[in-house]
Amino acid sequence: AMALCLKQVFNKDKTFRPRKKFEPGTQRFELYKKAQASLKSGLDLKAVVQLPPGESINDWIAVHVVDFFNRINLIYGTMSEYCTERSCPIMSGGLKYEYRWQDDSKYKKPTKLSAPQYMCMLMDWIEMLINNEDVFPTRIGVPFPKQFQQVCTKILTRLFRVFVHVYIHHFDSIINMGAEAHVNTCYKHFYYFIREFSLIDHRELEPLVRM
Asked: Is 39 inside a domain boundary?
C-alpha cells in the first residue's frame, strides 16, 4: 500500500532530471539490489547503511551517491512547482543560512542564485559527475580516482542543502501532498549514511540539527 500511495505522491514525470540507472550484470548493480533489499526488509536504517562484509567502500559509496541523487531529485521535482523565483529568490535554509553556487565553469566565484536556479545547477553538475567514467568508473577493474571520496563529500554536502531548503521552506507542501513519511525516511537514510562514513562536515548539518 505504501508503494501505491508513493506512486500517487511522486509522479515519475516530475523527476527533476532523468534517473541514473545501474547497468544490470555489473558489480554495482548487484550492490544496489543488495542495498535496496535490506532497505525494504524493514531493517533499522543504521544497520542498512553499514558496509556489507567483503565489499569495497568506494563501490558502496558510489551506489549510494547515485541512489540519493535519484531520490532527492524526485523529492525536489515533486516540490518544484512550489519553489519559484518569487517564493525563493535566494537559495537558503531559513534566515541564518544562505548557499551560494560555485563550479569550475560558469560560476568561478560563489554566486547568489535563487533556489530554483541553484537546484538546476546542482542537478546538472551532479549528473555530469556521475556520468563521467573518470570520476565514477563503471567498468570492472577500472580503479576509482584518488579524490573519489572528496568528490562524493562535495556532492552529498550539496544534496544535504536540498533537504535543508525543502524542510525549512516547503514543509507545508510536503505535508499537504502526504509525502512527509517518505521524505523523512529518505532524510534519515541519507543522514545515517553520511554519519556512518563521516562524509559531511558536521557544521554543514547544523540547519537541521533539531530534526
From this structure: no
Strand ranges (DSSP E) for 32-169? 92-93, 97-98
Residue where the block lists cell 535566494? 90
Query: Residue 88 annotated as binding?
Result: yes
Does some domain include residue 61?
yes
What span, in angstroms and rounded, lies between the C-alpha atoms of 206 and 175? 23
SS3 76: helix
Higher pLDDT, 202 or 40: 202
Q: Which three cell numbers stand for residue 210?
A: 533539531
- In a 3-state reduction of DSSP, which class is residue 34? helix
Task: Please give the tally of structural domains in the chain.
Answer: 1
Q: Give the whole-angstrom CA distance, residue 8 versus residue 181.
A: 14
Q: What is the mean pLDDT of residues 41-51?
A: 85
- Does residue 185 belong to any structural domain of this protein? yes
120 is in an annotated binding site: no
186 is in an annotated binding site: no
